[in-house]
Amino acid sequence: MFKKIIKGGHKKHSKSDSIDGSLHGYGLPGSGHHVSGTNSSVVVNYASRPGHNSKSSNPCPRTTLPPMFAVEPLPLFKDVAVSDRQNLFLRKLQICCFRLDFSNTLKLVREKEIKRQTLLELVDFIQAGSGKITERCQEEMIKMVVVNIFRCLPPASHENTGQEAKDPEDEEPYLEPSWPHLQLVYELLLRYIVSSDTDTKVAKKYIDHTFVSKLIDLFGSEDPREIKMILHRIYGKFMVHRPLIRKAINNIFYRFIYETQRHSGIGELLEILGSIIHGFTLPMKEEHKLFLVRVLIPLHKPKAVSTYHQQLSYCVVQFVEKDYKLADKVIRGLLKYWPMINCQKEVLFLGELEEVLEATQTAEFQRCIVPLFRQIARCLNSAHFQVSERALFLWNNEHIVGLIAHNRRVILPIIFEALERNIQHHWNEDIHGLTANVLKMFLEMDAELFDECEARFAEKKAKARDLEEQREMIWKKLADAAAERGGDLMVTV
Description:
elongated
């Protein structure tokens, strides 16, 4: 029996078994011997190797280069017969199925360059449209992609040190050291997805729900170079994944808003959503309207909104342009999360408000006119000249001026006092000039209404002056009474 076991241990493997084994299980080598063929110059030698069935409790599979690994470049696709190219494609994938250590730039320099050149050849092969690749090649290619891109992301810098998290705008993002390889793997995946030779029915076997979910998780990377286009292309080509993608993105946003408030991929995800929203058909589904109210509008609340506000604003404006009846909800949502002490954030909100108002019709405008212009009046009187200036710039927009002119009898009484205070008290000369232009515009719109507001303001000012005089008189009487009693009378304020 012992001799049989020894014999079994020395059983020879066929050439195809060797290649298949090394590609099995997302590119992990399954056997430890020489891999060769007629055109192959790939040599793999192992001093030690894991068994086929060895399992690790580590959620990140060990796919780094094994000890004593030697690799030589394979021939170019153009140098082999057409019938041999699919097999060569598999062998090139095998070279790319290991992640190399980039923590030391002087280590494995030659192997890193061979892998980079091999990835470039794979990208060119797919991009050139050299015919459909077999289903086997597609399966192994996705396994190679999985090995390379799905990795444990490093913790945020503040998690490493245990210090309090910094402002996201002040933090320098972590840059993935293996990007020279990672970028090409992403490019290969993108070319495969958009290729006209890719059969969606076959591809969706390998680009499944698990793959898409892990891809979305990569948006948590601090490296801003992670490619967002791939998820968008998957959304466009694989209709079966669309509900999953929308749900997964929603969950990321919910965690960001209500739990972590730290997610490096928010801007990129919003950019993808901007393109998705642009393609929404009318009438708009209730699911999409709920997404606007429950996700996009609350995204204005986090402190880090400035890092993704441009993409967020684009998404919100797209909704209003698609369905103008949503303008009232959007404007009230902006007012709900309007910043009270962050002036730079106020400037962003005023810019977004202008874009929303530009797509707003009269009926929706009238529903929110009072709370809206009360907030605008507060912005007009802001001591921060950029906030006041940005609010006054609203009168440079012809569509907004048209809405204001149509509803001037409601608007002017709300903001007249703020405009007059700017003229009389604001420290910035530019604000004086802009305010004077707005007052002149209202005077030309309706001189009678302007005179009424001016008279009302003068009356209110006179009453305030009389009230102040009465208050001073009362305090003077109290002071005189205290002086007569020798200062013994105490007045409690």
